[in-house]
Write a structure and sequence with these properties.
By secondary structure, this protein is mainly alpha-helical. Helix content is about 60%, strand content about 0%.
Length: about 70
């Protein structure tokens, strides 16, 4: 489904620098979450519902796809 165009009167303009900073922040958060989920799997700690039946290998694939 196509997204509607941004109204230039209310849409927020972004510079490439801001977009890159946002992207780096997202990647950093994914790396940190991946490590936390893998640690939880190794130690038998609770994980989020989407990760309950995943192995470490499954988690690697999931986060590789997300990145």
């Amino acid at each position: 489904m196509a997204l509607p165009p941004i109204d230039p009167e209310i849409g927020e303009r972004q510079t490439l620098k801001k977009i890159r900073e946002w992207y780096r922040g997202i990647v950093e958060a994914l790396v940190e979450q991946r490590a936390a989920v893998q640690h939880a799997i190794r130690t038998g700690s609770p994980v989020g519902v989407r990760f309950v039946l995943m192995t470490e290998s499954n988690v690697e694939e999931y986060y590789d796809t997300q990145r």
